[in-house]
UniProtKB/TrEMBL annotation:
Start and end residues of each OmpR/PhoB-type domain: 124-217
PROSITE patterns, alphabetized: OMPR_PHOB, RESPONSE_REGULATORY
DNA-binding found in the keyword field: yes
Keywords on record: DNA-binding, Phosphoprotein
Species whose genome carries this gene: Streptomyces pyxinicus
PANTHER family listed in its UniProt record: REGULATOR OF RPOS, TRANSCRIPTIONAL REGULATORY PROTEIN CUTR
InterPro entries hit by this protein: CheY-like_superfamily, OmpR/PhoB-type_DNA-bd, Sig_transdc_resp-reg_receiver, WalR-like, WH-like_DNA-bd_sf
Highest taxon in the source lineage: Bacteria
Location of 4-aspartylphosphate modifications: 51
Sequence ranges assigned to domain Response regulatory in this UniProt record: 2-116
Protein name: Response regulator transcription factor
Pfam families registered for this protein in UniProt: Response_reg, Trans_reg_C
Length: 217
């Protein structure tokens, strides 16, 4: 899952981004509405965590722009106000969910994951394919009933491949979904991560390399 965090309180924004990355998500961070519109125009995000009161361009206008573009991106709006009228207004603008500050980080994670599931073809909460069972919420992976310990990026890559349901996923798509925009597009990090993931999943290999195209399970 790729997420954009838009929050003008830099410490809060960076803390949220760090927490989401620990959950295996690819996260970009900006601190004002103008930068948010720039990123949205360049990258495809599953979820935007959007503070409402932003400098330069208000969060409401960012949300409206996402709706106008017809993007599948889901918006989780944050605000310091917990008034019902504010929540209703935010949802009417086009936000998919609303979370008042201060919030429990576990709730933020759950809401981001729930919104992320809405951006693609509906799939069961627990993914199963080729003897692999992946639970995104519990961060657990099993191969033929035996638990497999994965690093966050390995988990993220496996989740993208599982969600593709047997179709080929290119290295570029994996890079976009599992890493943030600061990653060098010419790096071999995808190949290395797939290699270690194959090793940890054991025999027989389940991740197939399709020459010139990418990978699939």
């Amino acid at each position: 899952m790729r997420v954009l965090v838009v929050e003008d309180e830099q410490l809060l924004a960076d803390a949220v981004a760090t927490g989401l990355r620990r959950e295996g998500m690819a996260v970009d961070v900006v601190y004002d509405g103008a930068a948010a519109l720039e990123r949205i125009g360049v990258n495809d995000y599953d979820v935007v965590v959007l503070d409402r009161d932003l400098p330069l361009v208000h969060g409401d206008d960012v949300c409206r722009r996402i709706v106008e573009l017809g993007m599948p991106t889901r918006v989780l709006m944050l605000t310091a106000s917990g008034d019902v009228s504010d929540r209703v207004e935010g949802l009417e603008i086009g936000a998919d969910d609303y979370l008042p500050k201060p919030f429990a980080f576990s709730e933020l994670i759950a809401r981001v994951r729930a919104l992320g599931r809405r951006t693609s073809v509906p799939l069961p909460p627990v993914l199963e394919r080729a003897g692999i069972k992946l639970d995104p919420n519990r961060r657990e992976v099993f191969r033929d009933g035996k638990e497999v310990q994965l690093a966050p990026k390995e988990f993220a890559v496996l989740e993208v491949l599982m969600r593709s349901e047997g179709t080929v996923v290119s290295a570029e798509q994996l890079l976009e979904k599992a890493w943030d925009e600061n990653t060098d597009p010419f790096t071999n990090v995808v190949r290395v991560t797939v290699m270690t993931l194959r090793r940890k999943l054991g025999e027989p290999p389940v991740i197939v390399t399709v020459p010139g195209s990418g990978y699939r399970i």
